[in-house]
Write a structure and sequence with these properties.
The chain is an alpha/beta fold and 54 residues long. It is 44% helix and 26% strand. α1 links the parallel β1 and β2. The longest helix is centred in the middle third of the chain and has 13 residues.
Length: 54
């Protein structure tokens, strides 16, 4: 089973780069732009890891 990761990042260029690296490493990656969107994605996908930009 491949681990699922949610990346929470509001900067599109940073989000694209982080997502690309993680997908190339074999992870399933979901991207959220806001805290509300992140809560929804986390609830729906139950990820193994959340990468959160403060």
């Amino acid at each position: 089973m491949t681990a699922r990761i949610v990346v929470v990042e509001d900067d599109p260029s940073v989000a694209e780069l982080v997502t690309l690296y993680l997908r190339n490493a074999g992870f399933i990656v979901e991207h959220a732009r806001t805290g509300a969107e992140a809560r929804t994605k986390i609830g729906e996908t139950r990820p193994a890891l959340v990468v959160l930009d403060l």
